[in-house]
Design a protein that fits this description.
six-stranded mixed beta sheet; alpha/beta; Nucleotidyltransferase, domain 5; single chain; about 230 residues; 12 helices; globular
Length: about 230
């Protein structure tokens, strides 16, 4: 099974905002392959100051980067046919579909990939607890001390480690056996309820965010200022 662990950074949240960074790492049969896709994107608009505090990506840095139309084909080639693994998938899928929608004749995410939401998985496995990416790193003993700002590739690499630990660990290609597989819990049973249904993904809201998402965003910014330890901005 080919999975792509994906994260994006954006100019902000809400109507009219755009993707400015995409980071992906490839997992095949529960083994990190070392392949990745990483791209900064000129959003053709300014980055909100609040978003810049989160990821540190400036308008000046993005000025000479390609626009989404220039990278759309290579991005699709990398992810098509895979299962996307995303933390708070509706956020990223909504932005991806917005970008695809600006281009004539391009598919929506549901047309080329299935989607697994690790935030939904974490909430099922750890109800009532914090399930931001930072909280999951602490829970599973993953060192993310080098993560001072959000970055799409770094976050996707961290999420890949979190996801594999949440669902039984990475496969050892040299020692894999049927007996080992029999000892592991069924990943299919664990995740069957958590894949984003294409019919739902097709109707994901593209513009605007809920009041709850807005509050989560503000809470995360307060955390960055040292006022609280809140949830992941996404």
């Amino acid at each position: 099974m080919r999975q792509i662990v994906l994260d994006t950074e954006t100019t902000g949240i809400g109507e009219g905002h755009r993707i400015i960074e995409i980071g992906c790492v490839e997992v095949v049969n529960r083994k990190l392959t070392g392949r990745h896709y990483h791209q900064y994107i000129n959003p053709e608009r300014l980055v909100d100051p609040e978003a810049m505090e989160v990821h540190g990506i400036t308008d000046e840095y993005l000025r000479d980067k390609p626009v989404f139309a220039q990278i759309a084909n290579e991005f699709i080639d990398f992810i098509k046919g895979s299962q996307l693994v995303i933390h708070n998938a509706p956020f990223d899928v909504g932005f991806m579909d917005r970008e695809f929608g600006y281009l004539n004749g391009y598919p929506m995410t549901k047309d080329i990939c299935s989607v697994l939401d690790t935030l939904a998985l974490a909430r099922q496995m750890h109800p009532g607890q914090r399930n931001s990416l930072d909280a999951l790193c602490r829970r599973y003993g993953i060192d993310n001390s080098h993560r001072e700002l959000h970055g799409a590739l770094l976050d996707s690499e961290i999420l890949a480690d979190v996801y594999l630990l949440m669902t039984g660990g990475q496969t050892d290609l040299s020692l894999d056996s049927q007996e080992d597989k029999d000892d592991q819990p069924s990943e299919q049973e664990l995740l069957s309820q958590l894949v984003v249904d294409p019919s739902v993904a097709a109707n994901l809201p593209v513009y605007g965010v809920s009041e709850e998402e807005g509050l989560q965003h503000k809470a995360f910014l307060e955390m960055l200022k040292g006022k609280s330890d809140s949830v992941h901005w996404k």
